[in-house]
Amino acid sequence: MSVVEPQATRTPGAARTAQAFEDWMRAELQVVEARLEAWVPAETPAGLGEAMRYGVLDGGKRLRPLLVLAASEATHGVREAALRAAVSVELIHAYSLIHDDMPCMDNDVLRRGKPTVHVRYGQAQAMLAGDAMQALAFEVLTPQAGEGAVEPALQARLCGLLARSAGHAGMAGGQAIDLASIGKPLDERALRDMHRRKTGALLQASVLMGAACGNCDARAWAALADFGGALGLAFQVVDDILDVTQESHTLGKTAGKDLNDNKPTYVSVLGLEAARRQAADLRDKAQEALRASGLAGTATLAQLADMVVERES
Amino acid sequence: MSVVEPQATRTPGAARTAQAFEDWMRAELQVVEARLEAWVPAETPAGLGEAMRYGVLDGGKRLRPLLVLAASEATHGVREAALRAAVSVELIHAYSLIHDDMPCMDNDVLRRGKPTVHVRYGQAQAMLAGDAMQALAFEVLTPQAGEGAVEPALQARLCGLLARSAGHAGMAGGQAIDLASIGKPLDERALRDMHRRKTGALLQASVLMGAACGNCDARAWAALADFGGALGLAFQVVDDILDVTQESHTLGKTAGKDLNDNKPTYVSVLGLEAARRQAADLRDKAQEALRASGLAGTATLAQLADMVVERES
Q: In chain B, how long is the greatest CA-to-CA distance?
């Protein structure tokens, strides 16, 4: 059962739209996979590339790349830039999972239905693979002569957005709060702050990097930032719900992990029903932000927001 | 005793030049320290910034920033861009030391005369601090509105140079080779390839990033790349020599570590005397490259190359 009632059962004519969205998603996922396949190096000394590829290919929902591409579509963005941005955010996401799974962090052995990178290749190689993937994200954003051209000012802007979402004020900062809050009671505000950084910052950056590839006035930019913020938080609320309501084989990762690790979650702080309502409210907030953007082509972004709250894994 | 006979004993008039170099270095180090102090965040949630600051402030020779600034000087570079590049390379260097010292890698407890970051703050925080420092390097290279202005095309170029030197084909790749070669006999060629990546890539990038801040034609660029390559290798040869000839308290890190870890070094592969000759040859090669650059103001770069081979710690 999904966390929130599917859009398709609520809106007349939504089934046809849903099919178009499925088609869009399938086509874009193929492109993203092909770019990842091409850009994450197969030939490196000492098997580093093999560990990198293991950590990022053949798995994952690719939500962040899809957000980049949908936001770029909504702003008539430059395709090559958007594809590079899409791959870069997925590389940052994948590196964070590799490091997060390590014994000194969450000590998880299962990810996307496979043994985690450190289980397969050892801790040292896993750490290096993550480090190299973070660097690779910025390599992808700065194509050299002979690679696909992206206007230098846009390269710089994308690098700046990505770095700030991944760093101390964003993802890495959120992970530090996560670490420090194990076994501690957090109120909803502190929990929200942690997740805004840990998960939300990169999801929001995905939307904004896509928008940066196109034409986006200040009003649309602010609205897309709101959209990305609400969607990022909704994603985490749903994650916390799925952690207690689904089995490991459905999730492709260890279920009940947060509870066992004594980590505060939306479910432990709010209770299951209030968490479900929170997810639905955040979806509504995200949709409202899209309407406020004044952009014409935001249907795909709206469907991605639905997907985030309606997913079952 | 220094590894290679000091320049000052060989060249008439060199003592006066040496004083000017000392003055330049003292002044520039102050500027670099002040920028690091300002840009590595003190206020972050969950103590992440504290671990980052511990890992990069109050220590280190700052060779990489000095190379950036000297190369920028030689090419009449934009000062703000060069300072940002200088800080960014030091952040990458410092993050690599934090990760390298961790138990799953070199398991070292002493660095710059202090307990290593994971000893002081725990492994998880050390890994996150390193991750956040890599991101911060790219934040520093992409100043936002209200921060010091750097032309966007230059921002993009600096990000590209830094990412490629830090990633799978550069530093991280070299570390993977290092890991894989413990206890294995390497010939000189394989050892050189490892060090060109592990240490050399970032040192060379420091020179080139400095040059990118200024005016540098293709001939000068190629010559500076040669200079950076030779200097990078010389640095490592000297490091290997010092590892067996100096005490821990002089080095500020554990002496004899490579030998104990059964790692191939220039000393173990070539022997001590041949390693000293190699260092001197590489210094000469570096100086020759500077002459070939056609640039007028390379005296400081030349003195940095001397310093690299003549250092005692």
A: 56
Distances (CA, A) of A224 to A160, A200, A236: 17, 13, 18
CA-closest candidate to residue A85, choices A24, A163, A162, A149: A162
This complex has an ipTM of 0.94
Quick one: DSSP state of residue B181? T
CA distance B245 to chain A (A): 29
* Tens of pLDDT, residues A278-308: 999 999 999 999 999 999 999 999 999 999 9
- Is A7-310 CATH 1.20.1300.10? no
Report CA torsion sign: B183, B185, B186, B191: positive
Q: Is residue B44 helix, strand or coil?
A: coil
Residues 6+ apart with CB under 8 A from B205: B89, B161, B162, B164, B165, B170, B228
B278 reaches A (C-beta below 8 A): no
CB contact, 8 Å: A144 with chain B?
Answer: yes
Residue B235 burial (CB count, 10 A): 21
Q: Tell me: the pLDDT tens digits for A113-124?
A: 899 999 999 999
| Domain edges within chain A | 7-310
Q: Is B183 exposed, middle or buried (0-12, 13-18, 19+ CB in 10 A)?
A: exposed
pLDDT digits (tens, 9 = 90+) for A206-238: 999 999 999 999 999 999 999 999 999 999 999
Determine the residue type at B172. A
Token couple for A128 = 């290096």
Chain B CB contacts of A127 under 8 Å are: 99, 102, 104-105, 127
Which positions of chain B have pLDDT values less than 70?
A: 1-3, 5-16, 248-253, 255-256, 259-260
**Nearest-CB residue to B134 (from A122, A131, A152):** A131
Q: What is the Cα–Cα distance from B91 to B130, expressed in whole angstroms?
A: 9
Percent of chain A with pLDDT over 70: 92
Closest to A85 (Cα-Cα) out of A14, A199, A165: A165
